[in-house]
Each structure stands twice: as C-alpha cells, then as structure tokens.
C-alpha cells in the first residue's frame, strides 16, 4: 500500500453485521428457499466475485442437491461508485433455457447490475428465475428490481467483507464492515 494511505485494517470503521448474525440469517434464508424451491432441479447462479462466499455458505445449508454456475460482471471496478455500465466478463457455462434458476448476489445497491443481469437471464427463457441477495441498500436504488429473498437491509454506507470489496480489498473479512468515509470520499477542496 502506498505511502500516506491508511494501512489495511485501519480503513475499517466498524462491524455492521457479525459473522454470527450472518450465519443465523443464512439458516432463515435457506429455510425459505428450501420450502419454496425444493422438489425440482435447481441451478444456483452466483455473480462473481462478490457473491462467492455467500453462495458457498448458502448452498451448504440447502437440504437438496443443486447445481452451481457463475457469471462475472463488473461495474464498480476500483471505485465506490458504480460506473453505470455493466459488463459481463464471464458468461454462464450452462444453457439455462427451461431451467429453474436461483440468482445469488452479495448486494443490490443502485440496482443497475441486477437489472441488467435479470434482463440477460430472462432473454434465455428459464422456467423460473428467483433472486436472493445478502444485502439490500434501498436508499441508493436507481432502478426498481425484483428481489425474492433478502438477508439484511442496510443503510447507505459502503460495506466490505464476506465477499464484498473496496478496490479488490477486504473480501476475506469474515464480518460485514463499514469502510471509513475518508477512504472513499475525496476531501473537499
Ligand atoms: O446495485 P449496484 O449499484 O449495481 O451494485 C451491486 C453490484 O456491485 C458489486 O459488484 P462489482 O461490480 O463491484 O464486482 P465484484 O462483485 O467483483 O466486486 C456487487 O457485487 C454487485 O454485483
Ligand atoms: O457497499 C458496497 N460495498 C461493496 N461493493 C458494493 N457494490 C455496491 N455497493 C457496494
Ligand atoms: Mg466490487
């Protein structure tokens, strides 16, 4: 890290959602998903990279077999603000036409990413398409989006950990933490 920048863990303000709270909520989410989606094949699609840790924990709590695939998109890059341009950097391996799909995301913020992805997936005509997000930040929404299962609704703060990054960092934090505003907001001139 460059001179003058805060060193790694000093960029974190506080824990917003602890690993214990995440684990408890995942039990509820898995229960709701199981009661609605058991009894047929299910393909769980994770959105790289942020959803990896959430998906890995969630699927292990589902009491029936699922298949897994991944899509990669990028809109935030090294910033805390969405570029507004969503780009698919890795498409699915599976053909999803006629399949039952659960799309898993770490966070819905402006909604631009999810809105784009839902359009992309629906154009391939799956039989069923449900959406599960760990975090919902409704104050920042720019486009309305379909979300069927939500882990936590959070305030308008930039969060990292449990898969979520800031400029590629902090995905491996076990708790969901708030990043200090001074880290991502330029000081006023
Ligand atoms: O609702 P939005 O404002 O579109 O923001 C949500 C999206 O932004 C993040 O992805 P990012 O582009 O940072 O890629 P990453 O998952 O690799 O971190 C996050 O993982 C969501 O996919
Ligand atoms: O708060 C956030 N943290 C990390 N990535 C994000 N992408 C959208 N919002 C966020
Ligand atoms: Mg990111």
Automatic annotation (TrEMBL):
Family named by the database record: Belongs to the purine/pyrimidine phosphoribosyltransferase family.
All copies of domain Phosphoribosyltransferase, residue ranges: 21-166
Pathway: Purine metabolism; IMP biosynthesis via salvage pathway; IMP from hypoxanthine: step 1/1; Purine metabolism; GMP biosynthesis via salvage pathway; GMP from guanine: step 1/1
Cofactor(s) required, per the database record: Mg(2+)
Keyword Nucleotide-binding applies: yes
Protein task: Purine salvage pathway enzyme that catalyzes the transfer of the ribosyl-5-phosphate group from 5-phospho-alpha-D-ribose 1-diphosphate (PRPP) to the N9 position of the 6-oxopurines hypoxanthine and guanine to form the corresponding ribonucleotides IMP (inosine 5'-monophosphate) and GMP (guanosine 5'-monophosphate), with the release of PPi.
Cellular localisation: Cytoplasm
MF-aspect GO terms: guanine phosphoribosyltransferase activity; hypoxanthine phosphoribosyltransferase activity; magnesium ion binding; nucleotide binding
GO cellular component: cytosol
NCBIfam families named in the record: HGPRTase
Primary site of residence: cytoplasm
Keyword Transmembrane helix: no
PANTHER family: HYPOXANTHINE PHOSPHORIBOSYLTRANSFERASE (PTHR43340:SF1), HYPOXANTHINE-GUANINE PHOSPHORIBOSYLTRANSFERASE (PTHR43340)
Keywords: Cytoplasm, Glycosyltransferase, Magnesium, Metal-binding, Nucleotide-binding, Purine salvage, Transferase
Pfam assignment, any one: Pribosyltran
Name of the featured protein: Hypoxanthine phosphoribosyltransferase
InterPro entries recorded: HGPRT, Hxn_phspho_trans, PRTase-like, PRTase_dom
A GO biological process held by the record: guanine salvage
Entry's EC annotation: 2.4.2.8
Catalysed conversion reaction: IMP + diphosphate = hypoxanthine + 5-phospho-alpha-D-ribose 1-diphosphate; GMP + diphosphate = guanine + 5-phospho-alpha-D-ribose 1-diphosphate
């Amino acid at each position: 890290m460059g001179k003058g920048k805060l060193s790694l863990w000093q960029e974190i303000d506080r824990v917003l959602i602890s690993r214990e709270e995440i684990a408890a909520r995942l039990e509820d989410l898995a229960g709701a998903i199981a009661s609605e989606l058991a009894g047929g094949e299910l393909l769980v699609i994770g959105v790289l990279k942020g959803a990896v840790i959430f998906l890995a924990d969630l699927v292990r709590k589902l009491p029936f077999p699922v298949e897994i695939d991944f899509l990669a998109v990028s809109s935030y890059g090294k910033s805390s603000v969405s570029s507004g341009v969503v780009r698919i950097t890795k498409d699915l391996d599976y053909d999803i036409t006629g399949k039952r799909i659960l799309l898993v995301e770490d966070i819905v913020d402006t909604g631009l990413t999810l809105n784009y992805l839902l359009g992309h997936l629906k154009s391939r005509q799956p039989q069923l398409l449900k959406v599960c997000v760990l975090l919902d930040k409704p104050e920042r929404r720019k486009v309305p989006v379909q979300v069927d299962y939500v882990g936590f609704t959070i305030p308008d703060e930039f969060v990292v950990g449990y898969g979520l990054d800031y400029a590629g960092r902090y995905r491996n934090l076990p708790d969901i933490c708030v990043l200090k505003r001074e880290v991502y907001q330029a000081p006023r001139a």
